[in-house]
Design the sequence.
C-alpha cells in the first residue's frame, strides 16, 4: 500500500512508465547499478514483463522552455533534446555518476556544482533516457530563504 504523505486526497503516487527494448539491460542499470529496489514484478503471456522499482519520493517538476534551456546549459554546457528527463537525488553524486558510467551510461555532463547549490551530472542512460543525478549541498529550507527561491504560497 502506498503511504499518503502529500496532503492530497486524490494522488498517492507518481509512476513513470518506460518501455525498454532491452528489458534485462534496463533492469541491470536502474535496479542493480543505480540501486532502485524492486517493489514488485510481473510476467505475463507472450513474454510480457514489468518491474516496478522504488525510487523513493516522487515529484513532478514542470519547467518552462527558458528553465529547460538554463538547466541544460548548467548541466551539460549546451542545449539537449526535448522530452522527459528523470532526475535522481543521491547522497554521493560523483560516486553514483562513476558507477552508472561503468554500467554503460554515457556521461553528457560531468558532476558540477549548480548555482542553486546541488551537484548535478547528466547521463545518457538505459532505455534511451537522459537522467540527472543530483546531490543536494544545501538544505531546502536554507535555499528557500535566498532570492528567487521559495514556493508560490510564499510569494
Sequence:
Amino acid at each position: 500500500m502506498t503511504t499518503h504523505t502529500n496532503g492530497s486526497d486524490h494522488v498517492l503516487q507518481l509512476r513513470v512508465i518506460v518501455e525498454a527494448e532491452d528489458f534485462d539491460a534496463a533492469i541491470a542499470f536502474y535496479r542493480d547499478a543505480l540501486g532502485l529496489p524492486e517493489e514488485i514484478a510481473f510476467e505475463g503471456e507472450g513474454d510480457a514483463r514489468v518491474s516496478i522499482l522504488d525510487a523513493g519520493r516522487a515529484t513532478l517538476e514542470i519547467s518552462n522552455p527558458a528553465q529547460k534551456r538554463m538547466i541544460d546549459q548548467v548541466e551539460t554546457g549546451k542545449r539537449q533534446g526535448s522530452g522527459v528527463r528523470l532526475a535522481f537525488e543521491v547522497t554521493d553524486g560523483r560516486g553514483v555518476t562513476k558507477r552508472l558510467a561503468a554500467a554503460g551510461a554515457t556521461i553528457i555532463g560531468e558532476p558540477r556544482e549548480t548555482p542553486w547549490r546541488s551537484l548535478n551530472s547528466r547521463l545518457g542512460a538505459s532505455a534511451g533516457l537522459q537522467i540527472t543525478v543530483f546531490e543536494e549541498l544545501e538544505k531546502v529550507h536554507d535555499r528557500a530563504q535566498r532570492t528567487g527561491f521559495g514556493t508560490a504560497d510564499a510569494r
